[in-house]
Please model this.
Amino acid sequence: MNEKLKQMDRTLRDIIAALDDKTLLIVMGDHGMDTKGDHGGESDDEVEAALWMYSKKAIFGHGHNGLLEPPRTAKERPVSQIDLVPTLALLLGLPIPFNNLGSPISEAFVGPKKPDWEKLASVNALCAAQIQRYQHAYSAARGLDNEVFSAANILWTVALEMWQGAKQKTAPNAESLAAFVRYQAENLRVCRSLWASFDVPSMIYGILVLGCTLAILGYYARATTPFRAED
Model:
């Protein structure tokens, strides 16, 4: 394992040396590993994976959450996989995919010096607007009641008002950013509750039907006399 880590370190150093100022390097893993190099368990080292983004231009930073250094573990600063979608789209100047529910990773837009609250608010406004369009289309397609996303819609209205105030210099950009973050979090919570709900009575009924079927098959298997051909 130690030799493999040294090999990958040399590979990354060679890649970085060949980068130009217009290239973004992103290194990530689909899972972690324990001290022996194994994975598939439930330990933090196995279920958490690293994300490293590098550019020769000074575009990344910290400080938006009071921390000036990168976190040492994912528990200090977790990032969801779905957050990669809007982050990469915005960094590459591409439209955010329609069905995205992730949020921009703040460290990619905060700036290398003091936190750039205006930029953070701007990218989150773009992302939240896309999420709102998806929410509207999804609700119409599924025929959902207005109450389902009522809290999210209220937060969206508040965020828009604060965003307008920030652009007119009557409200802080940091508060506008926080409003869009609250909207995105609430919208994601509702979607998770819709997509991860289970009909327990139907599940119990299905198990009972399966059990009865197996019992009937077992009864007939024991009651039936095997046919034996005679010479």
